[in-house]
């Protein structure tokens, strides 16, 4: 399909960024204003212990600088996303990044200065005026770090080493993305084509088995060549994580990483244990795949080819909005009102145009609309993308409506819950209201693939990541052979006997960038499972389920994520929500087995 230029797209299908800043000149004025706000806030350094007024002025003036900084950042990055080849906005982004680094360093005194004041004095400050109560949770969040923060000099020395400590992950990125040479493979039409990290994702899904096998063997021949180097970059990252946890007096890297969101470690262990208890379901799904694909032998490169053809239903964008809105009616008026604002007031950039960023996202800041970027193409999967991003945008909308800036965002731990719950509601709606068995099978498989990729696979990663950190901490050095042996064993355990654990898969650890994100991946799995439980409760009209869920969307950062979810109806320190997800998975697997 020929890419259109922006002036060929009707205005109503484009987003309106003049609602952020009318002109680029306004951007420039606000850019300067961020610097002024930051300078103004920095004058409070050293005054916070004086009295309640100086204490809260320092906090409020630094928040004001960050608030405007975010707005300026969003303008630059969204302008750039519309035409990533435009040098003007690339320049804007570079300038905003430099500004952000400068503001962060100027205002980095706030947290250590708060922690240099006795907790009893801070309590006294909070109780001096009713309006200071607002900051109680914000200060509690900082207070929790007190046992782990060193004195100012020591923290300064550690923070000066940050660049050095992140060099392993940078080396990984450069090696994997620019130095590594991948072999050519032959595509479906017989053409020689270059393999890359990006194109691998497409070729591994090829309906032509020869193509996906060549892609699989090609990618791992390239990574295998440098497996010892990749083991070293990964070891460097693990050592840095362990070192930072150690100097900040955490028992291990995992507890340091998840303490950031105040998540108990049992959440992580429960996830791993519960997934292990239900691996038989993944084995059954893999066996079904083998049967549907009519394979005598199934290999690891047969796990990503679409199991079913996408049904020949098309939704143009206006129909998609209507379809999504219908599935969301369950939430009631307040949610739908937010959806209508987002769908009807030019907050979505719908179609692919020349130079536009690929994929889809929801983005914005406290003082902008919650925009959505799409590359919409009328498919059923695109309807799922729309309802997913709508979930993020309404979450932002309601959080900003009910929370002040200091709590006007939400942690990653809960972010994907708001989007995935919407996808599940659409899944439920399709399953309940469609007669076409082909469509039903496709929808069932869409969900099952989601659990496979998000709950099972990310937990496999989480388990591996934790194993590496603990091994290193206990004095076992990370080597390519050691990592591969463990990964290969884990992989066979996860996927079962129906699939041949090809030797190449043992090297999968070497190419996964998420292992450099410090205990990030488990949140994909917990979020997906929580979303299944929440959407089932609402779809089955459980008493109060919708109100509880809306309460979560409105709470932002005003509470700890684990408490927010508990109030929404999911206790993520227990395993019920995981059991529920596996029960739904099993039910849908049974249904799909019957249909095909
Ligand atoms: Zn998302």
From TrEMBL:
Required co-factors: Zn(2+)
Q: What is its EC number?
A: 3.4.24.-
**Residue span, Oligopeptidase F N-terminal domain:** 113-182
User: Any idea which GO molecular function terms this record carries?
Assistant: metal ion binding; metalloendopeptidase activity
Domain annotation Peptidase M3A/M3B catalytic: ranges: 203-583
A Gene Ontology biological process noted in the UniProt record is:
peptide metabolic process
- Briefly, what is this protein's role? Has oligopeptidase activity and degrades a variety of small bioactive peptides.
What protein is this chain from? Oligopeptidase F
What the entry lists under InterPro entries is as follows: OligopepF_N_dom, OligoPept_F_C, Pept_M3A_M3B, Pept_M3A_M3B_dom, Peptidase_M3B
- What SUPFAM superfamilies does the entry give? Metalloproteases ('zincins'), catalytic domain (SSF55486)
UniProt cross-references to PANTHER family, sorted A to Z: PROTEASE M3 THIMET OLIGOPEPTIDASE-RELATED (PTHR11804), SACCHAROLYSIN (PTHR11804:SF84)
Q: Which superkingdom is the protein from?
A: Bacteria
Coiled coil stretches, renumbered: none
What's the record's note on cofactor binding? Binds 1 zinc ion.
Family, as annotated: Belongs to the peptidase M3B family.
- The organism is Xylocopilactobacillus apis
The entry's keywords: Hydrolase, Metal-binding, Metalloprotease, Protease, Zinc
